[in-house]
Amino acid sequence: MTRILIVDDEPQLLRALRINLVARHYEVALADDGGSALRQAAQFHPDLVVLDLGLPDIDGVEVVCGLRGWTSVPIIVLSGRVGSQDKIDALDAGADDYVTKPFDIEELLARIRAVTRRAVPHGTQPAQIRIGERTVDLAAKTVSGDVRLTPTEWRLLELLLRNPGRLISQRQMLTEVWGAGYAKETHYLRQYMAQLRRKLEPDPARPAHLITEPGMGYRFAP
Predict the structure, then answer these.
(1) Nearest partner of 216 among 172, 182, 178, 175, judged by Cα
(2) Cα(31)–Cα(37) distance, rounded to whole angstroms?
(3) Could you report the per-residue pLDDT of 108-128, keeping only the tens digit for each?
(4) CA distances from 10 to 30, 58, 119, 203 (A)
(5) What letter would DSSP give residue 182?
């Protein structure tokens, strides 16, 4: 049974989420502030954390940082704040995905299923991955159809393919591929992602696998 820790300071939302998740055979623990969340995570050992960013004692991004100090448990953040900066900060701190309040419960459940499906043990990811009509071999660094990728394109593609379904922030991609000094050079990403789509997507203008989340980052949809 998948264990989920829900962290939110709204009692009605906690109750509604608990009822819906238990009905779907998840084991659920609740916390209503950041301090309780960190203690519960250590005691409950959840398989997934659903974390509101607007907590009364500790900012949700700090909770993400605290969790990432010792665990790689998947984290979905909830945010009712206007704008995207808090979500970007959470993703940069190590969150796996986000849902904006107010949300439909079915949307959150779909995100939970997606995150738990891809939370596979390290080293179990396939070496060969399909993108449309192309097969990408991460071990051999080849693409079927004699498609040639530059070293930078390979680094970007590998980052996305090794995190299927996960939203990777622009800052993380720029930092990991080009270095910390390029964290704001988002035009680099637009250029290289366009090149990857032209080489790999059946219809580059309507990408089905290399997906843009406007203002946030990119994700690989298997």
Answers:
(1) 172
(2) 5
(3) 999 998 888 766 554 445 678
(4) 11, 15, 28, 44
(5) G
